[in-house]
Write a structure and sequence with these properties.
By secondary structure, the protein is α/β, with parallel strands linked by helices. Helices cover 61% and strands 11% of the residues. It is built from 22 helices and 10 strands. Strands 2-1-3-4-5 form a 5-stranded parallel beta sheet, sandwiched between helices. It has a 5-stranded mixed beta sheet with strand order 7-8-6-9-10, sandwiched between helices. The chain is flat. Pfam families: HTH_18 (PF12833), Response_reg (PF00072). One of its GO terms (molecular function) is DNA binding.
Length: 532
C-alpha cells in the first residue's frame, strides 16, 4: 500500500477530500493532512510519503517549493496539484517536479481525482516492480561474477597450470591477470561471528561487503584479482611488472582499504602478505600454506598488516607455570580482584607469546584452567557451571588469535567471579563474607575458630552460630573443605609428598589430614595421587 498526504490551507477542502476519496480501495494510506507547505515539510520529511496532493498558494512555503524539497529527498515521489491558479508558469514548474496531474479546484470532482490517483498508483507499482527486477538482475549478475571468481581461485589452488593456459583461463572468465609477477595477500575478517551478531548480517553478507569495499579502493590504483575463499578469508593477487617499486604502493593502498572497511562496516581485517610469485605453481604453493596453516596467524595482532612466515613452535612444557597461574587466578576470582585478574592473565599471555607455544597447547591449557575453576565453583557453591565442557571446547577452539583468547578469557573469568560474588553476598552477613575471603587467601595457614572470631571482633560462640546459620556449615568444616580442595590441586600439580602437603596446609598431625581426606574423597591422598 502506498502512503499519501494532503496539503492545503483551505480546511474545508482538506476535510472533504480526506473523507470523500476511497483511499483504502485505491491502495493508499492517508498518513497526514497539513495546512501549509512548511508544516508538511517539517512533520513528514522524516518519513516522506509516496504521493502528495497539494495546493500551490500557501503561506510561508507554497506547494511547489515544498514539492521541490521532498523530491530532492525522495526523487520518485509523485504529486497531484489542486490549484486556483490557471497560469502556464505554474503548470511548467509542476511538470518539472514530476506532478502527475494539475487539477483546477473550480472543476474538481472526486471521480477525476480518484482516476488520477489510480493512474499514479499503477505507475508507482510498475516502477517498483521494474526497480525490483533490476535489483534481482544485478544481484544475480553479481552472484554469477562472484561464483566465477571463486571457481577460478579454486582452480588456481588445486590444479596444475602453465602460466599461458592459466592467464587464458582467467581471461575467458573476464579476469585480467597478465603480469610478470604476483604478490599474494590474504585478508582475514577479525571475529566474523561477533561482527555478524552486532551488525545483524550473515557472515556471508559481511564477507561479500568486505570484498566489494576492498576491491573498490584497491582497483583504482592496482591491477588485481580478488575473491572470497571462505566467510572469513579473502584472497587478493596483485599483478605487478615492477614488484620492487609496487610493494610500497600496495602496502599504502591496503592500509586505505582496511580503513575503509573499518569506516563503513565497523569491523577490522588482518592483512597478510605472501611471498612474491612468478608462476601459477608458486602462487598455489604460497596460498595453500597461507590458507591451511591458520595456526601461523595465532600470534598476529588483529587489524594489522603482516608478512606470512612459518613459526617454529616451542617444545617446552606450557604447564610449567600452570600451578602458579591457577593459584593466582583462583585467588583473584575468590576475592573478586578484577584488576589483579586482568594483570595475571596479561602476564601469562605475554609469557605464552614470548615462548611461542603451539596454539592447540595454549587452548588446551586454557580449557584445563576453566574446567578446574568451574569444578571448584560447582563444589563450593553447589551451583551449575557457567558453560558446559562441550560448549567451552567449541568456543575456545573457534578463537583464532592469542589476543582474542586473552580478551575472551578475561571476560569469562570476570563473569565467574561475579557469579561467586553475587552468590556469596545475597544471603550472607558481611562478617561471614570477610571470614570466607580470609580463609580463601590464607588457606595454607593454621586457622582456628577463635582466631577468626578475634579478627572480626566477635565472640567465638556467637561467630560459630552466625556462620552456621548463614552457610549451613560449621566454620571448621568450611576451612577443612577449602584445605582439602587445595590438597587435591597439589596432589595433581606438584611433586610434594603427602607429609609435605599436610604440613604446607597447616595440619600439625599428618594422620588427621589423611583421615579428613579419606572421609571426603573415599580414598587416601596417596591413592588419589596414583589414580590421577
Amino acid at each position: 500500500m502506498l502512503t499519501a498526504i494532503l496539503v492545503d490551507d483551505d480546511y474545508p477542502v482538506i476535510r472533504y477530500l480526506s473523507q470523500a476519496v476511497s483511499w483504502s480501495e485505491l491502495g493508499i494510506e492517508l498518513t497526514g493532512c497539513y495546512y501549509s507547505g512548511l508544516e508538511a515539510w517539517e512533520k513528514a520529511r522524516q518519513n516522506p510519503p509516496d504521493l502528495i496532493i497539494t495546493d500551490i498558494g500557501m503561506p510561508k512555503m507554497n506547494g511547489l517549493e515544498m514539492l521541490e524539497k521532498f523530491r530532492a529527498m525522495k526523487p520518485g515521489i509523485r504529486a497531484i496539484i489542486l490549484s486556483c491558479h490557471n497560469e502556464f508558469k505554474y503548470a511548467q514548474q509542476a511538470l518539472k517536479l514530476n506532478v502527475g496531474e494539475y487539477i483546477l479546484k473550480e472543476s474538481l470532482n472526486i471521480e477525476q481525482l480518484e482516476h488520477a490517483l489510480r493512474t499514479l498508483v499503477k505507475e508507482v507499482g510498475l516502477n517498483r516492480q521494474q526497480h525490483t527486477e533490476m535489483l534481482v538482475y544485478k544481484q544475480k549478475q553479481s552472484q554469477n561474477r562472484a561464483a566465477l571468481k571463486e571457481k577460478f581461485l579454486k582452480d588456481t589452488l588445486y590444479q596444475s597450470w602453465d602460466k599461458v593456459a592459466w592467464i587464458e583461463q582467467a581471461r575467458s572468465n573476464g579476469i585480467m591477470i597478465h603480469a610478470k609477477t604476483y604478490i599474494p595477500m590474504l585478508i582475514v575478517i577479525d571475529r566474523p561471528e561477533e561482527a555478524s551478531r552486532v551488525r545483524r548480517m550473515s557472515e556471508y553478507t559481511i564477507s561479500f561487503a568486505v570484498e566489494n569495499i576492498m576491491q573498490e579502493v584497491l582497483e583504482a590504483d592496482h591491477s588485481l584479482f580478488i575473491s572470497r575463499y571462505s566467510h572469513k578469508e579473502i584472497v587478493i593477487l596483485f599483478c605487478s611488472d615492477q614488484s620492487s617499486r609496487d610493494h610500497q604502493a600496495i602496502y599504502h593502498s591496503i592500509q586505505n582499504a582496511a580503513s575503509a572497511v573499518q569506516k563503513y562496516l565497523k569491523l577490522s581485517v588482518s592483512c597478510i602478505f605472501g611471498a612474491e610469485a612468478r608462476s601459477p605453481e608458486e602462487i598455489r604453493g604460497t596460498l595453500q600454506r597461507m590458507l591451511k596453516e591458520k595456526i601461523q596467524r595465532f600470534y598476529f595482532p588483529a587489524a594489522g598488516i603482516h608478512r606470512f612466515e612459518e613459526i617454529s613452535f616451542s617444545r617446552d612444557d606450557i604447564y610449567a607455570e600452570y600451578g602458579s597461574l591457577y593459584a593466582d587466578i583462583n585467588d583473584d576470582i575468590a576475592l573478586n580482584r578484577e584488576t589483579e585478574l586482568r594483570i595475571h592473565v596479561k602476564e601469562w599471555r605475554e609469557w605464552v607469546a614470548t615462548q611461542k607455544f603451539h596454539p592447540n597447547e595454549v587452548k588446551e591449557c586454557v580449557l584445563r584452567l576453566l574446567m578446574d575453576l568451574q569444578l571448584k565453583t560447582k563444589q563450593l557453591l553447589q551451583s551449575p557451571l557457567l558453560m558446559a565442557e562441550e560448549k567451552l571446547f567449541s568456543v575456545v577452539s573457534d578463537i583464532d588469535t592469542l589476543e582474542h583468547l586473552e580478551e575472551w578469557l578475561v571476560q569469562y573469568l570476570e563473569e565467574l567471579a561475579r557469579k561467586i560474588s553475587i552468590f556469596s553476598i545475597k544471603s550472607k552477613r558481611s562478617e561471614v563474607i570477610k571470614a570466607q575471603q580470609f580463609v580463601i587467601s590464607h588457606v595454607t595457614e593454621k586457622i582456628t575458630l577463635e582466631d577468626m572470631a578475634g579478627r572480626l571482633n566477635l565472640n567465638a560462640s556467637y561467630f560459630s552460630r552466625l556462620f552456621k546459620r548463614e552457610t549451613n556449615q560449621n566454620f571448621i568444616e568450611y576451612v577443612n573443605m577449602l584445605k582439602l580442595q587445595k590438597a587435591k590441586e597439589l596432589l595433581n600439580q606438584s611433586g610434594k609428598t603427602v607429609e609435605e602437603i599436610s604440613e604446607y596446609l597447616g595440619y600439625a598431625n599428618k594422620s588427621y589430614f589423611i583421615k579428613l581426606f579419606k572421609r571426603e574423597m573415599g580414598m587416601r591422598p596417596s591413592e588419589y595421587a596414583a589414580w590421577h
